[in-house]
Amino acid sequence: MNPHVLVVEDEDALATLLQYNLEKEGYAVSVATDGEEALVQVDERLPDLIVLDWMLPKISGIEVCRRLRGRVETRNVPILMLTARGEESDRIRGLDTGADDYVIKPFSMTELTARIRAVLRRIRPGLAEDRVRHGDIVVDRVAHRVKRAGREIHLGPTEFRLLDYLMQHPGRVFSREQLLDAVWGSDVYVEARTVDVHIGRLRKALNKDEEMDPIRTVRSAGYSLDVDA
Asked: Where are the alpha helices (DSSP H) in 59-190?
């Protein structure tokens, strides 16, 4: 599954340029044009990385960063800040607030995409790797294969994407709606109970004999990949 990048930028031309170039690099991209909308979008679908402009309408980028770092579910989301502020004191303030990197306008897209790759490698290494491992489960994204305890696990494409997404965020609880947006896409209408069906298929394929079920059902909340499994 392609990493999901949320671009928060109020200049339409720059937002369009960022979206076009990041999608060309293989990222799934969403755009918010102010700080308030950014916080709403993060609640609806947790991104893998946020490209966040400092100067935004309604809620500033630095305040958005501060709020995200103050919440358990978003404190580890990588944030790359864009700003015209080049003074050292401003850079220090942005990093102290919780930004993982800092790019000064004007910038080249080559530099920005390199910074994004570097942040993802450092903070979410699973997104930069062809193989992701959790416990005795290994997902090979290139070969599109899954193994558990050395044996081959045969999954359909939807179950594969579902497992890959859960393994990117071990321990985080996702609602059915969040999983629908992340795995099926926000522009596709699928009933929420469809998630239950595919989780059931995924469990059946993964679990054999006395093996611990790595997928935890959280009543009235959703599903999580159990960090203790």
From this structure: 61-69, 88-97, 109-123, 125-128, 157-168, 176-179
